[in-house]
């Protein structure tokens, strides 16, 4: 990767979904770059990446957060393989534990620890991020992609659940500037667009919820 919070990370020649070019350039989910840096500076004991895909966040945070234990989960076996391979390629294979399902049992086991949950599970956050069902969530910091394109009411539903226990920030997807990347200067406009396109099919805001 040429820039961004995980600059220098080695990417595999395939991704779990979408377009690998934004990750290579370092502009993938750039709306979150500032909050990711804040998270990296926070002494979390555990980072729990639910929906780890190809390992972008799990491996990137393992590289930048050597004192944190990284737990990565994905229901899709092929994506777990990608994450495992990426961790090995970047020299953090022994620090990233990888499992299939993360639910009440796995999160409750971390009660009372300083935990960051990074969640991207295509609408499944409605079920997982429920502090009534999993009280431990009230004490965790949570960075979540809210799939409004799949469930229009989801962002407000999730935010309302944590309004009393967390300080909440919301981030909307923004445009990209191809002029920021010299690698794109000599290609046509359509290819510039494709190089920056993350494959989103509709609104996918994010929220960072910091436990009070």
What is the beta-strand fraction? 15-25%
Percent helix range: 25-40%
Shape, principal axes of CA atoms: globular
Structural class: alpha/beta
Order of strands in the sheet with most strands: 3-2-1-4-5-7-6
CA radius of gyration is: 17 Å
Order of helices and strands: HHEHEHEHEHEHEHE
- In DSSP terms (H or I, runs of 4 or more residues), the helix count works out at 8
Number of strands: 7
What is the mean predicted local confidence, pLDDT?
A: 90
Largest sheet composition:
7 strands, mixed
| Straight-line distance between termini | 34 Å
Low-confidence stretches: none
Tell me what you see in this structure.
The termini are far apart. Helix 6 links the parallel strand 4 and strand 5 (141-145). The protein is 28% helix and 17% strand. It is α/β, with parallel strands linked by helices. The protein has 8 helices and 7 strands; from the N terminus they run H-H-E-H-E-H-E-H-E-H-E-H-E-H-E.
Jot down its keywords.
7 strands, single chain, globular, 212 residues, alpha/beta
Topology:
Elements: H1 21-25, H2 33-40, E1 46-50, H3 56-64, E2 69-73, H4 77-89, E3 96-99, H5 104-108, E4 115-119, H6 125-128, E5 141-145, H7 154-161, E6 166-171, H8 189-196, E7 206-211
Parallel strand pairs: 1-2, 1-4, 2-3, 4-5
Antiparallel strand pairs: 5-7, 6-7
Put the structure in a nutshell.
28% of the residues lie in helices and 17% in strands.
